[in-house]
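REVIEWER CHECKLIST
Item 1: Sequence provided? yes
Item 2: Single chain? yes
Item 3: Sequence as submitted:
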Amino acid sequence: MAKQRVGLLFGGKSGEHEVSIISAQAIAKAFQIGDNPEKYDLIPFYIDKSGIWHDPDFSQNILDTGKSYAPETVDPAQRWQFPDAAPSIDVWFPINHGPNGEDGTLQGLLTLMEKPFVGSNVLGSAAGMDKLAMKMIFAQAGLAQVDYVGVLRSEVWSSPCIFPKICDNVEAKLNYPMFVKPANLGSSVGISKVRTRAELEAALDLAAKYDRRIIVEAGVNAREVECAVLGNDNLKASVVGEITFESDFYDYETKYTDGQSQMKIPADLPENIVEKIQEAAIQAFQALDCAGIGRVDFFYVEATGEVLINEINTLPGFTSLSMYPQLWKNTGIPFDNLVDKLIQLALEDR
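Item 4: Structure as written out by the authors:
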């Protein structure tokens, strides 16, 4: 049987560019393990910080060195030029985290190419990136979640008469502390925890610099737990893991600095709570019409036994030490088998 030519897409224009390179390095190594070398030929395609696609030789150098590339000058027409090797790809494995990678835009392009790819289609990817759209879908599906308020950049950067009323509305619906987030960014970028009116105003201004849609969420005293989902129609949920940290909240620095956060897999939770989280993870995955891969994050309020869904990540971090692969490793699927399974799921008729 002929090998499948897998196009590994990584990099991109988002703030998670460097994280994408690390994920791609781990995935590339997985294709050299077990039965994968006999089943697949991996062809890397790096998208630099300006949005230009690069050929496999250039892309392999990025994988080898781990160093990103941002050209000093860009011809916009280059963004529409794909490397000569692109048409030969049988199935794509995009691992471009963040906007322009997991928000449905790249998925739309791959759909137009009429080639299968790992992960959710346009709808699941777009809804999974936009926290406001995601939470509205979760609410429609009957999933319990923290209270939240949506705010627009135009309201934040409006006249001095309107902005105080926006803050009044937020305070009327939510109690401090609150979390202010750009609706369409990952990896905790632009997120603030606020306890006062002055902090709320500053946080809204910060979030508005990143996105035109902003979400303000009620704070909750809870444990942060996560569950991985794998499949298209016949979904499986992993064991549940827990993130612990000493900082005030799980911000970008805490997430990506060694030693500042810890994973506990499996989490020390009652069996009925684990089952509740796993069922809700699958329900959330189906509500957004996701496919292949997803990590669903929850708050577990130990005092009341409540399980509140936080968000879904349709293209989670994929280093060998990331939560998604670790959850499956502890469920009985090692890293190389997980990569193989995701390719097979992409090849399914869906």
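Item 5: Key structural point noted by reviewer: The first helix runs from residue 17 to 30.
Item 6: Recommendation: ____
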